[in-house]
Automatic annotation (TrEMBL):
This is DUF5683 domain-containing protein. It holds the Pfam family LpoB. Residues 169-277 form the DUF5683 domain. It comes from marine metagenome. InterPro entries: DUF5683, LpoB.
Length: 312
């Protein structure tokens, strides 16, 4: 990150999330859903988010029970202690087979609600995970990622089953190690795959041709050398000597060509493997979370750099 980028990040507004109140679901389920909501808020990168462990530490130090902080007044008071500009609180309720999620963003400075959202969901409780992830983008007034929308459309189980069948960089890498260009074909880059395969085959063809010529020149050299050693006629001796020298030159030139073609084939193979790993297969929804992001530390009232890496 450059200094200007860090300054821009520091100018972002700060936000903290309180545990959602569970009404008809147990505390563990409410906490788990709050964790997923907070993580998804972080992915939006629209505000600098206070790490939840820091929120819990400060609340514990001040004698607050976060599960009991359900009013706007309490949220504002906690937000002032954390030094953030906005607080999000909410409740998750259940009535029969119907679940409701209510979320509210409150301005710490004014105490007024700036955003309110509610979701109604009918189904199993684990389906709330997708709903609360979508809610995180909605309350920030941002468009949810296509993968998240697809997850809701298919259902979590079908979505993850489809993801398991998706093509990966590792799959492309292994295929290109076996056959040059096969990884690119697997990734949907068919023109590139054809170019790599044709190039590799052309170089291997030249190597085979040079190897054949090398074998012929070697046989000629041995044959002429034997004739040269046994010949008595001076004219024939001179002729065989010339042929021995010519065969020796052919051996050297074809050996050099074989070495060059072997190096070229190895180079094409290596570049093909690297390229296969770097390209993204057409149907892969790779993680778009940045390697570096900022998290707000209320103790120092300054952002912290966090590092993460996706292994897909």
């Amino acid at each position: 990150l450059t200094l200007s980028n860090i300054t821009a990040q520091e100018s972002k507004t700060t936000l903290a999330v309180l545990d959602f109140e569970g009404r008809g679901i147990n505390t563990l389920e409410a906490a788990t859903l709050t964790d997923r909501f907070t993580s998804e808020i972080g992915k939006t990168e629209s505000m600098v988010l206070v790490d939840r462990t820091m929120v819990e530490e400060i609340l514990k130090e001040q004698g607050f029970q976060q599960s009991g902080c359900t009013t706007d007044e309490c949220a504002v008071e906690v937000g002032a202690m954390l030094g953030v500009q906005f607080m999000i609180s909410g409740a998750i309720g259940k009535l029969g087979d119907t679940f409701t999620i209510d979320a509210k963003m409150v301005s710490v400075e004014s105490g007024a609600s700036v955003e309110t959202r509610n979701v109604t969901y009918i189904g199993k409780v684990d389906g709330l995970v997708t709903e609360i992830e979508l809610l995180a983008w909605d309350i920030m007034n941002l468009e949810a990622p296509e993968a998240l929308k697809e997850k809701k459309r298919l259902g979590a189980e079908a979505f993850f089953a489809a993801q398991a069948k998706q093509k990966t960089r590792t799959g492309a890498l292994l295929r290109s190690m076996a056959v040059p260009g096969f990884g690119q074909y697997y990734a949907g880059k068919k023109l590139m795959a054809a170019g790599i395969l044709v190039s590799e085959l052309a170089v291997l063809g030249l190597y085979a041709s040079a190897n054949s010529a090398y074998t012929t020149a070697t046989d000629d050299f041995n044959n002429y050398q034997n004739l040269y050693n046994t010949e008595k006629d001076p004219v024939m001796i001179a002729d065989y000597r010339s042929k021995v020298n010519s065969s020796h030159d052919d051996i050297k030139s074809n050996k050099d060509l074989m070495n060059q073609m072997a190096m070229a084939a190895g180079g094409i193979w290596a570049l093909n493997v690297i390229h296969a790993f770097l390209i993204k297969p057409d149907n892969v929804t790779a993680s778009k979370e940045p390697l570096l992001r900022l998290a707000y530390d209320p103790q120092t009232k300054s952002p912290q750099l966090r590092f993460s890496i996706a292994l897909d």
